[in-house]
Write a structure and sequence with these properties.
By secondary structure, the protein is α/β, with parallel strands linked by helices. 27% of the residues lie in helices and 30% in strands. The strands form 2 sheets. The chain has a 4-stranded mixed β-sheet with strand order 1-2-3-4, with helices on one face. Strands 5-6-7-8 form a 4-stranded mixed β-sheet, covered by helices on one side.
């Protein structure tokens, strides 16, 4: 698997690059060789943050971990990705590489977990209101929700604002 490392307020040594490539190679059995893992390294205070994102056949695989040690955060992020893939292996088996789930020493422990069944327990409908993203954030906060769907007054597109960490917000805009 190819790796693309992006640094944000972070310096990556050659030694760390080698550690990253070795650890990411654990995911090679799930994805083809030419697939790319996007790794973003950043700092937040005394913590190092590692984000791993892999786009494959219309599915986004993503893990984000923080730790005072960047290597531990990296190991945790790769473990999280592996856990996500294993947990959803029956749903993902048609999308991942052939033989991706062949037995590897140490995998027996993870295979004992029962798979979660996805069930929609509640359906909600509401009228979309034209507003700006800033107004949508205000409405989301007033409702004490983590996200809020609205119709953007300037574009007419249905968009979503969502709460991120540290009093930051994100905006999801659909592509045509």
């Amino acid at each position: 698997m190819k790796t693309v490392i992006t640094n944000r307020k972070f310096e990556t040594s050659e030694k760390l690059k080698g550690i990253i490539e070795r650890k990411i190679s654990r995911l090679d059995r799930f994805f083809p060789e030419d697939e790319t893992a996007n790794i973003t390294l950043s700092t937040r205070g005394k913590y190092a943050r590692v984000e791993i994102t892999i786009f494959y056949k219309g599915t986004i695989f993503r893990a984000e971990e923080e730790n005072t040690d960047v290597v531990i955060a990296l190991y945790d992020a790769v473990d999280t990705l592996e856990r996500q893939i294993r947990k959803n292996k029956t749903k993902l088996s048609k999308r991942l590489r052939e033989n991706a789930f062949e037995s590897v020493p140490g995998d027996e422990i993870l295979d004992d977990f029962e798979e979660d069944v996805i069930g929609i327990t509640k359906t909600k409908s509401f009228v979309l209101t034209d507003m700006t993203p800033e107004e949508a954030v205000l409405q989301m906060n007033l409702l004490a929700h983590n996200f809020y769907m609205f119709r953007d007054a300037s574009t007419g597109k249905i968009s979503v604002v969502y709460a991120r960490g540290n009093d930051e917000y994100g905006l999801i805009i659909p592509e045509d």
